[in-house]
Specification:
- It is a single chain.
- The chain is an alpha+beta fold and 514 residues long.
- Helix content is 65%, strand content 14%.
- The protein contains ten helices and nine strands.
- Strand 3 and strand 4 form a beta hairpin.
- Helix 4 packs antiparallel against helix 5.
Length: 514
């Protein structure tokens, strides 16, 4: 019989040789791959990158075509409420922000799972090429009898159940932090909603202003053409000179240039409104609402009260402070013990109750109890984590104060802008009346030979400028009111419905095709 020591040495040597051969094959394969990878020339590497960029463009082109087919296409009359409702459904930035609610829900579910037990199951099959054995004499016959230590085929299955009992207060702190994050996400969505509502209303009124500017420039071009025709007729009659005709032509060209700029601006404003609403750029609609000058009285005290009780960013900072306190509690819990209960059930063949037996049978062994762990020293990691969380808590508290100061600044700026816009509207309303009367008097004087052509052109230009200033003043006032509402956090307080409930000003729903 070969001694056990020699058997182990022989088996160890054979295993070592196999491992050495396997390692050598892996090294040769790696060297071959490196050699093949290094054989590419500069031109081949460039061609690989070029093909990759071409494939990326094809993917973008296909995605663009697919998204264009999925976008909603609207037509008909479009009011400001319709724009808001369409935006709340189709705006991409808002859709992305809404997914944060699912992120918060996932964190809340994960945190609550810490209260529940953990159940783990594992199974193992192990086959031994050669089972160690030895011989002993039979007590009856005296003949050598071979006794094996273990089995060639071994099976086992283990079921483990662990129930957390105490973790230094970290478990309830994580649950509270997840709930606070869910509330914080609600405020993030509310802030994004206010942003898109402000953006779409501003874009709507910007397009409306552009349309009025186009109408003003078109009327100026029409009046200039009429005046040019009149001057040319007078030159034919010997009353006007070539200079008068040339001056009228220059004025007409100036108004035509302004008309072109206004039309370009209206195209850009229209594309921007469509982008904010998130609908197709092929949409064909007409604006049904009009500027409405409606001054409001808001004191600074009322504005501050509304802002401090409504602004989502202030609520977010409050939640962040409370969330950071929970993170500090989690860091402190690492100084306290962790206690849990456990139950382990093991099925195996051979039976775990016997070391060796002549007949291998399935057996079962179970164990239950409590286990605890109390870390004594971890290289100051816990202390470092506490210092970090305390600093982040102070940062959150400073952020709250800074956000309050930002709110006060935005309120002051918005209220002042609204007051200036009101004065601007009043002045330009009167100025438009004066400019209209001035142009009438200039035309009468020109017909009677009292006024010159230059005076008529100047009066026409003054009226055009007065009209532009008036509509810009109305636009500034409307936008400044929106800024005040946004600064107070009440721009969406009335609430809006989805696009399925949207109606135009004439009572009909806007057409949606897509």
């Amino acid at each position: 019989m070969e001694p056990m020591g020699k058997m182990r040495n022989r088996f160890g040597l054979m295993d070592g040789m196999k491992a050495l051969r396997a390692t050598t094959c892996l090294l040769l394969a790696a060297a071959g791959l490196m050699a093949l990878g290094g054989c590419k020339s500069r031109g081949q590497l460039y061609e690989d990158v070029r093909l990759s960029r071409t494939a990326a463009y094809r993917q973008w082109e296909n995605r663009k075509t697919r998204e264009a087919g999925q976008q909603v296409q609207i037509s008909g009359k479009l009011g400001i409420e319709d724009c808001i409702k369409l935006t709340l459904v189709h705006n991409k930035m808002l859709q992305r922000t809404l997914e944060e609610k699912n992120v918060a829900r996932g964190q809340l579910v994960s945190s609550q799972s810490a209260y529940l037990p953990n159940v783990d199951a594992s199974a193992l099959y192990r086959r031994v090429e050669e089972v160690p054995s030895f011989e002993i004499p039979d007590p009856i016959t005296g003949q050598p009898q071979k006794v094996s230590i273990g089995e060639v085929e071994n099976y086992s299955a283990v079921l483990t159940v662990t129930q957390p009992i105490y973790a230094g207060g970290a478990i309830p702190a994580r649950v509270r932090a997840a709930k606070l994050f869910s509330l914080l996400t609600d405020q993030t969505v509310r802030a994004a909603t206010q942003d898109v509502v402000y953006s779409v209303e501003t874009a709507y009124y910007n397009l409306l202003l552009s349309q009025h500017l186009v109408d003003i420039s078109t009327e100026a071009v029409r009046a200039s053409k009429v005046h040019l025709d009149d001057v040319e007729k007078k030159r034919a009659g010997g009353v006007a000179s070539d200079f008068d005709v040339l001056r009228a032509q220059v004025e007409l060209s100036n108004f035509e240039a302004e008309q072109i700029r206004s039309k370009n601006a209206i195209n850009i404003a229209r594309a921007n409104l469509i982008k904010v609403m998130g609908v197709s750029q092929d949409s064909d609609f007409v604006l049904s609402d009009e500027f409405a000058y409606a001054p409001i009285e808001v004191s600074m005290e009322q504005a501050v009260e509304a802002a401090f009780t409504n602004r989502p960013d202030l609520y977010s900072r409050e939640y962040q402070i409370r969330q950071q306190r929970e993170q500090l509690q989690i860091a402190r819990s690492r100084y306290l013990p962790n206690i849990s209960g456990y139950f382990t059930n093991t099925w195996s063949k051979p039976s775990p109750e016997s070391f060796a037996s002549a007949t291998a049978e399935w057996g079962r062994l179970w164990e239950a109890g409590f286990q605890g762990m109390w870390p004594i020293f971890d290289g100051f990691q816990r202390e470092g984590a506490i210092i970090e969380q305390k600093a982040r808590l102070r940062q959150a508290q400073i952020d709250l104060v800074d956000t309050e100061e930002t709110a006060l600044y935005e309120l002051t700026q918005a209220l002042l802008s609204m007051k200036d816009a009101e004065e601007f509207v009043q002045s330009q309303r009167l100025n438009q009346v004066r400019a209209t009367e001035g142009l009438r008097l200039a035309h009468v004087g020109y017909e009677q030979g009292v006024s010159t052509q230059v005076e008529v052109i100047d009066a026409q230009s003054a009226l055009t400028t007065a009209r532009v200033n008036y509509y810009q003043a109305i636009y500034s006032h409307v936008v400044s009111k929106l800024a005040v509402q946004r600064a107070m956090g009440t721009i969406t307080s009335a609430g809006t419905a989805g696009p399925s409930e949207a109606k135009t000003t004439d009572g009909s729903k806007p057409d949606e095709n897509g």
